[in-house]
Amino acid sequence: MHFLVSQCYSWEGYHLVQALLEDGHEVSGLHGQSLTDKESHLSMYIGRHAMFREGIQDTDYKAYVSFFGTADERVENQSCVDISYAAENTSELEKQILLPILYGEWMPRDEEAIQWNNKRILFDDEYFHKNALPIKPVMQTISKLLSGDGSMTNYRFYTKEVCPEQEDRAAIALTRNLKDDLSALHKHYAQFRFFYE
After folding, report:
1. With b meaning 16 or more CB within 10 Å and e meaning fewer, what string describes 41-64?
2. pLDDT (average), residues 146-168
3. Which of 30, 61, 86, 172 could crosslink 98 through cysteines, CB 3.0-4.6 Å?
């Protein structure tokens, strides 16, 4: 299957493209006119993959995935899925996936906190501990949803601890080992700090 992903070198887009490629899919990526230093760095990881191409290809995509309502108007007649953060955009689009606060390699962060939704949230903050999910399994799950039978509707991700019993959209609850995850992420940050800044 072939997918089109906007903001392919953003932190979130990069992890989705990685998940799709690992599942054996072809991916076309769109990005802004100029790349940040971090986006240029991430582009080197996926830009050379044999199943990845930049730009819109002359093909029928299984889905066009945009982040945060940034779908490119040049892309017509494609099944569009928008991925947004729940706190940022809860509009009722035809196909939308809402994310909680995420953490993972290359996330916007500093020594003590993550940058999320224009806020600085400390790693020991109660909200972070209660709601944050690792980006890799979230994007792996989204890859599976995208490659499904095409009947995909609206989804929302939660940690197991806060997942409601009833929701107006399909709820996906994931587990995590926050202590081990953060330990590995802090080591990654220490090793590649230059690329985070």
Report:
1. bbbeebeeeeebbeebeeeebbbb
2. 82
3. 86
Token pair belonging to 17: 């493209």
- Residue 143's nearest CA partner among 48, 41, 17, 32 is 17
Helix (H, G, I), strand (E, B) or coil at 195: helix
Task: Tell me which long-range contacts 177-186 makes (C-beta under 8 A, separation of at least 24).
Answer: 178/129, 178/132, 181/103, 181/134, 182/103, 182/123, 185/103, 185/104, 185/105, 185/107
Q: What is the pLDDT of residues 69-104, one digit of tens each?
A: 777 777 776 688 999 987 555 555 668 899 999 999
Q: Cite the DSSP H helix spans in the chain.
A: 11-22, 37-46, 126-131, 135-146, 178-191, 193-196
Residue 148's H or E segment, with its range, is none
**Rg from Cα positions in the chain:** 16
- Across the chain, how many H-helices and E-strands are there? 6, 12
Residue 26 to residue 31: CA distance in whole angstroms: 17
pTM for the predicted model, two decimal places: 0.92
Checking if the pLDDT of 49 tops 90, the result is yes
